[in-house]
Here is the input.
Amino acid sequence: MNTKALAEKMTSSENYFIVDSMPLGICKLSRSSTTTICREDLSTSPSKGYCASEKLHFYGYKLHAVCSSTSIFTNYELTQATVHDIHYLMNIKNNFSSCVLFRDKGYLSAGYQINLFTSN
Here is the structure.
């Protein structure tokens, strides 16, 4: 049984989940223009980002994750640092449509919020 299937089995009766993201810096921002790490493919290359909670500019990626109220990670994704949190929320909205999903201010957007409640 793979980890995703195991997590789904363990959280099948859960109604409350938490979604958040965190920065994953790969080098100092001052070295970002000269580093060659992971730059082979433009769609997966690192980028410059900002973490508002830490008031930190960084170079690398962003880890988005969903955790159950019993501390089981049910979904996660690694994106470029420039990907806004709201885009990850749109990717997972169908997986968490019949539960309560707690999030911070990074996931607020009037247009997306209306879409979350009106689409099937």
About this structure: The chain has one domain: 3-115.
